[in-house]
Amino acid sequence: MIPFMNQSSAFQIPSYQVFAGVDGGGTKCRVRLRDAQGTLIGEAEGGSGNIRLGLDLVWNNILSALDTALAKAGRNRSVFPKMSLGLGLAGIADAGDAARTMAAGPQFGRCDASSDAHTAVLGAFSGRDGGILISGTGSAGYAWVAGHAIQVGGWGFELGDEGSAADLGRNALRATLHAHDGLGPQTEFTRALIAHFGTPADIVHFVTDARPRDYGQLAPMIMKFADAGDSVAVTLVEDQARFMGRYVGRLHELGAAKVCLVGGMAPVFQPWLSPAARAVLAEPEHDALEGAILMAQGLPNGLTATQVTA
User: Fold this and answer.
1) pLDDT by residue (tens digit) across 157-167?
2) Domain boundaries 165-282, corresponding CATH code
């Protein structure tokens, strides 16, 4: 457990009874509660925490998870005025996003919001300098160096998300349709992916309303064929690993002596990284939820928006 940051906090810790951390990504949000002594008192999961899907949806998911975690602690929303909440949410890109996010939710004793990348790096290095590369449904590189936040990537599914489950799934569908049209190699994998949907037209129907998490759900199938040596699947995974290596290298250039891989796809892609990229990697000391709790305790959010009502 990370010690409470008594000396660096911007407020007196005893005035808060509960410190809550929220880690929100494209697929789910997680909540963790600690009391004033740092004891874990509750955890829960909810739906997506990406604010680009809508603040009403995200807050409903967060509050549902908070209710579950509080119930495990024998508490309820009456503790909100004595709660300091740290939000690390996908889709928060600047202080304006953070302010809008906090304004859309209920009143807490204190609320701080930043990107999920910022809370991930705080957790990974226990508040010290370092870099992280998130690889999950989406992706984002982020460094916290000498009190400055530096983002690399993280521009969303439409413009990026290289080194993620969603981008892997999207590229797999493209490669499969190329194979069907005779524009690329046809392999057991491309045939299996068409069979998974039914026909090429069914793939088009799928993408009409598909969200990043829907593309990401294809990742286990792709990895199965890649691990078996299918040439198309291997190329798809190698492309993701190559982009991840570029992110890691750039974060290192920007001053992150070490970089941690975090997110659900991190252990999946890590063996495919180049030796040069792996040489910069470190194991995270804690997860993004602990980073969000550290932010709730008063560590900088990397932005400027913070709400204090108590």
Assistant:
1) 888 899 999 99
2) 3.30.420.40
